[in-house]
């Protein structure tokens, strides 16, 4: 949260483009809001979205103008300080994880996800990472799947059969 | 008598008692571990607990909230890293105390004072909420609409450094909240012909994205911060200290409740204002402020926990969240089929007294867990970020999926996570977005009701604002916030009016 509170008196690289994109998106949304009911009446279903998107257009224009006035930050590069490689890599891994979680199932995809991320961020021996990933996955699984009864994608691992097998062993 | 019975619900059931204890315990750690925030934890918890019985879910989340607000002080004292925004003021004198080797004493004192603050907040909640709620029944639709706008404006103007950015974020949230079929006329809004969008974008997915994923992505910037170890010995504070600082603690607790009860202001602002109050009223501090004055530790800690009780007042009686955490909480109440608002106390008094009892219980657990288990604590807080952050991502994804057992919510969460990352990067506050999403339908519906009663005339609408004192006050407050933050005021009027005031 501290990043939110620090005062910003310089323009970071990419900030102008981001603010410009916000204007473009706001205008697009304003147009979409207009499509709902036009300017027919103040109590129509489109009135409130129109007001909200108009506010967005105005506010983003003000932000853009204010940003243009700021001096560019010195010694800050977009791909080193704003979007370092590690952030983009992790974003890509999460995206991949979201794609495969439904087909591969929670256990398998989460295990790979944890292993890759922890190895990337913590940089210890692979064996250590393996142990940490397995332990944390087991803890998460017990807490959420078994205690909280959260339904998780099963995928290709026959989870229910395994649990049924274990409970039958247990009762014997 | 009934009230007492409802109050004791969670005290007498072992299950609810256990869940409150668990929640408080978790909350203290969540609050203390830098990179984990209470908002993040409560948003993720909603998705896991929404199939539960409402009482169980509320016990756990109330515990996390109460514990989390307190827990932030721990790392503020030990590491000079506030675990939560409400602990920023705590670090100013707490860390110098720790550097002098008084970390244990500082933690003990801040625990006791937090609990005192917490109780003041709860008592005010119990006494004031019924009155506020009676008053709130007289509110017109336009008052609700303006209250919603006011809340977003306050959060927008206080949480960032630019009002325009705050307003943009709030309007974006309001817009996200309108996606889907219009509840009043069933017209499609922003659905682009996609049937999956008819139900709208799930606010929990937005919350997890904005507070969980984007925050964790930002943490990747500071992976290599070294952890400083502190030796902690005695933690139970001296009775003489508690007695000596009790008046200050009570004063700042009242500041905390009032600030917490205002829509849009929460524990962080309450703590800073309390710190300022302590600084102004303490004539001859034994140790100067900023160098380890106990007054500077007690004031913010009492205030930020008192603000919890305060924040519940508008949340339960008006349905207006005070800050991001209460916005998430209101989301949870809606999901469990409760309607926070003036009718809650009339229709479901058991919910109100149950919550009051719950907060009290959680506060007692803060005292118990706060004064014990410090060894375990220092172990857990040292958990390396390289392991912690992947786990946050994992929980965020599982949490988003668990809302509806649908992969689409993971996509929304991811999209808002990445967008939130860039918003934070360029100084846009994300709190107003969530507040906007939660308040969207309330503001929209009340706007339409208000304008319908004025038979669609904007002129009548504004004319009637000034016939009601409440509407006038709300309207003027909105204008005041707007103009006090624009350059017209800062460059033109302010220097004229406050010329004599010199900056120290």
TrEMBL record, chain A:
It holds the Pfam family TctB. Coiled coil: none annotated. InterPro entries: DUF1468. The keyword Transmembrane helix applies. Keywords: Membrane, Transmembrane, Transmembrane helix. Residues 17-153 form the DUF1468 domain. The chain crosses the membrane at residues 17-34, 46-66, 78-98, 104-122, 127-148. This is Tripartite tricarboxylate transporter TctB family protein.
TrEMBL record, chain B:
Residues 18-435 form the DUF112 domain. The chain crosses the membrane at residues 20-46, 106-132, 144-164, 254-275, 320-339, 351-374, 386-404, 410-440, 461-483. It comes from the Bacteria. Keywords: Membrane, Transmembrane, Transmembrane helix. InterPro entries: DUF112_TM (IPR002823). This is Putative tricarboxylic transport membrane protein.
